[in-house]
Structure formats: structure tokens, C-alpha cells
Amino acid sequence: MYTQCTECRQPYTIDVVELRSSHGMIRCKNCSAMYDALDLLNEGELPATIDLSESFAPAAINSSTPSSLASKYWSIGTGFLFVLLIWQIYVFEAYNLSQNPTLRAWLIKACSKTINCQLPDYKNLGEITILNGSFEPTNNHYIFKTAIINQALFAQQRPSIKLTLLDFSGRPFATRTFYPTDYSKQDNTRLKPNLAEKITLSIAAPSTKIGGYRFELI
Predict the structure, then answer these.
(1) Rounded Cα distance, 43 and 52, in Å
(2) Per-residue pLDDT tens for 38-87?
(3) 138/213 same-domain check
(4) Within this chain, do residues 139 and 191 fall inside the same structural domain, yes or no?
């Protein structure tokens, strides 16, 4: 039996074994079109009027069917989107997530055991308690004293202290910010959990008489 190319009508002889091995799909050597041999399949021998100049070339069977290709591309696309999502979370939310007390405990374990990363320093002024405070004159200067305690579950950066002096009408006339290096001689700038730290600062007496003071952690 024989078949013909559906595009250029080039004839090819073919048998059952060849049809089975190529799953009926043939690529024409004359025009390179791939076609189903069953469309123009004829029984018997080639007629004498048909020029048999080429033998058929069974088309290569692509094992990647449309459904499997779609599944493969879907998996690649999903993986790419997942990586992109993780990257966006890292870029835009990494710091905020590291400051969440619940998530931070998990992140510390993950960093130490798996990906070997370093989290940003924890900072939550709401978890630092001021135990007391005093501002007393002595000779030609003043002594400011206070004590703070970190009540967080994690060590966190020592806060800066903003000290404001008031006149006798209650109006501020001088302000200064003291940084951890100004009041702590510890090499480690972190304040350990549940550990009180006393702070003492010497303030030069200003020209304006001091009627009061206030301070805040920043």
C-alpha cells in the first residue's frame, strides 16, 4: 500500500509495520511537511503513473506531549514565581519580620541550623523599662542617673537617651542626645534580656537655671 503527502502529493510506499512504528505520522522528504499517512492511505501497489522517487521518512515521535509540556512549563513558572515572592519578602519585609517576637525565635533557629544568616539587631523600645531617674546638682555640674532593663526575649541594641532641660516656667531651653557609647563602656552595644543597667551622666551646669528636666529613650 502507499500514501501521499497532504501538501505536495508526493507518494510513498508504506506497510503496516512502518505505520505502527511511526504512529502513522510521516515527514515528507520533498516538502518537509509532517502529515498523517492514514489521510491518503491507499491499498495495493503504486500506480505506474505515479513517480516513486522518494521513500518515506517516519516522523520522529516527540515524547513531550502538549499536556506534559504544559505541565513542565507550569512547574517552571510556579517555581519562578515562588522564588520571586521570597525575594520580594526578603527585600521589603525582612527587617519587619525579624522584629516580630514570634517569628524571630523561629528565624534564629533557621539561621543557626540551615542557611547560616545574620538577623538585624532587635529593637523594641516598648520592651525596655525605665526603673528610676534622678537629676541632682553637685559642685559646678549635674549628675543624671537612671536604670533600664530589657524585658524582651532577645538582646537588643542599647537605646539612645534624649535629655531635655526646662526652665522654671517649664519651657525647654536645652536638649542633648546621649548615644550608647556616651554612657556605656561595654564593648557589646546590645542590652541582654532581663538585665538591669545603671546609667550615670555628668552634665555641665548651663547659664540658665534649671527648673526641671525630662528624658526619653529613642
Answers:
(1) 16
(2) 888 887 777 766 654 444 455 544 545 555 667 777 888 888 777 767 65
(3) yes
(4) yes
Beta strand 196-204 with 141-150 is antiparallel
Say if 76 falls within a structural domain.
yes
In this structure, are 78 and 143 located in the same domain? no
Q: SS3 for 4? A: strand
Greatest extent of the chain over all pairs of C-alpha atoms, in Å: 128
Cα dihedral sign, 151-153-158-159: negative
For residue 209, the domain's CATH number is 2.70.50.60
Q: List, for residues 172-216, the tens digit of each pLDDT value.
A: 999 999 999 899 887 667 899 998 899 999 999 998 999 999 999
Residues 111 and 133 in one domain: no
Residue 144 cell numbers, joined? 543624671
CB 166, CB 214: distance < 8 Å: yes
**Do 87 and 146 have their domain in common?**
no
State which H helix or E strand residue 113 sits in: none
Torsion of CA 59, 60, 63, 66, to 10 degrees: -50
127 three-class SS:
helix
